[in-house]
Amino acid sequence: MPLHVYQSSRYVGKGYRGTKGSDVCSDVCCRLLCLVLGLILAPFLYGAEQVRMQMLTSRESVINATRAVSNDTIDPDLVGHLVHFYTTEVTPTDTIVDNDFAIQFPEMARVKRTVEHCQWVEVVVETTYKDSDGYEHTTSTYTYHKQWVSNPIPSLLFHHMSYYNPLRQPYHDQAVSVQGLHLGPYIADQKLIENNLKLDVRLNHTHFESTHGATPSAAETLHGFRYIGDGYFYSAYKPSEMEWFLHLTSQVVEGTVLGHQIANLFGSCSAGDIRVSYRGANPQAVSVLSKLASKEGQLTHYQAADVSASGGKYEVGILHSGYIEPAEMIDISISEQFWGSVIWLRLGLFALLLFVFGFRFVGVPLFAVGILGQLNWGVGPNVHSGMIALAVIQLLSEFFG
Question: Which of 159, 195, 335, 382 minimizes the number of CB atoms within 10 Å of its CB?
Fold first, then answer.
């Protein structure tokens, strides 16, 4: 998509830019923000780590409690037990329907609708330089380009208001799951489906079918959506006469009519256009580790007791593509739980370091945390390598910046 670039300059002042009141205020405000962020994250981080530790300490007891069952018959004596089996007979109990677009997904266990908006995006880059007399000048470069974003971007605050973004948003993202999933003679409940099945299939016309036949959908009738292929429904924006007049007036005032004409001719989308796509989950073969809740084969989460001194319980309910042994399924679940919380844990630690040391000296403790983490914590190297890299960059900027 075409780029539109503008520059403006302003006088800053004379002399060396040392520590000013605004800089001090900025540092204090940032530290307070980091403190608030840390306090908000603390209970969630603690809960995530507690669940992971429960899973680790109870791993062997959960494996020992698992009962292997047949994938074609239900043993009523195992009701209430944690069971494991593998099956290739996977069918949804019902059909997911998107009434807005009048389509259904007969083979999908989960479907997510993604709505994207074509919008102008403003990027501002400021550069400051000193002239021969010691005066500082700042040049602001404003770059405008169109891209697909998740939500409309208000253009009222743009430096050039002629880059107008219509804020139409008739539909939002939504994820839907079937009520149950037949796994041979068993039925997995909705919670198992939502917690385990990944949306790894990009859907197109071969995966869905119309529910209204030749009758237009509400999306087509009200907002002009058409299926354009490759899994996309597209609605081109049509401005009202008043919108068109106000837009043209702002262009004339700023002298950017020609630029917009070129953008409209050669851009791949117009600001205000909307496209909708879908992703789904359609497992063909599944390994199951969950609780057999009834003689009818209902599967749900198993409440595993924590054997450590802390006590408590956590839920075990795993559906995984392909054949996997119970021990490996649990190990994968522990790994996913860890990586799901480790990023937030490190962000919380980073916020704490910023609060204690400020921005100028955070490199030293960050470097130490990264090194100790790689040596002793037994965690994948990516997070700690990133910490070390950030620390080195920060330290170099302190000494040579």
Answer: 382
Write 353-356 long-range contacts (CB < 8 A, 24+): 354/30, 354/31, 354/34, 355/31, 355/34, 355/35, 355/38
Which residues on neighbouring strands pair with residue 128, listed in sequence order?
Answer: 138
Report residue 314's pLDDT band, with 50, 70 and 90 as the boundaries. confident
**Burial track 366-399 (b if 16+ CB lie within 10 A, e otherwise):** bbebbeebbeeeeeeeebbeebbebbeebbeeee
**Which residues have CB under 8 Å from 43's CB, separation 6+?**
none
Distance between CA 252 and CA 232 in Å, rounded? 35
The phi, psi pair for 171, rounded to 5°, reads -135, 155
Q: Are the beta carbons of 298 and 324 closer than 8 angstroms?
A: no
Integer Cα distance of 55 and 18 in angstroms: 52
Name which of 156, 123, 136, 157 is nearest 9 in CA terms: 136
Q: Specify which residues 124 forms β-bridges with.
A: 142
Q: Kindly state the tokens that stand for 314.
A: 């956590």
Tens of pLDDT, residue by residue over 130-158, are 888 888 888 888 899 999 999 999 988 88
Alpha helices in 58-85 (DSSP H): 59-65
pLDDT, position 252: 43
SS3 assignment, position 109: coil
Query: CA–CA distance from 377 to each of 51, 58, 365, 369 (Å)?
Result: 18, 20, 16, 10
- What lies within 8 Å, CB to CB, of 211 at 6+ separation is 97, 99, 102, 103, 104
Q: Rounded distance, CA 221 to CA 236, Å?
A: 13
Q: Rank 210-224, 263-277, 363-377, 378-392 by mean pLDDT and report only the highest.
A: 210-224
Residue 266: predicted pLDDT: 34
For residues 95 and 274, give the distance between their C-alpha atoms in angstroms, rounded to a whole number: 26
Task: Give me the pLDDT at residue 38, please.
Answer: 65
**List of residues 6+ apart from 156 with CB closer than 8 A:** none
What contacts 240, CB < 8 A, 6 or more positions away?
Answer: none
Give CA–CA dist 21/26, Å, rounded.
8
Mean pLDDT (the chain) is: 77
**Rg for the chain, CA atoms, rounded:** 28
Q: Give the pTM.
A: 0.71
Rounded Cα distance between 158 and 142, Å, is 9
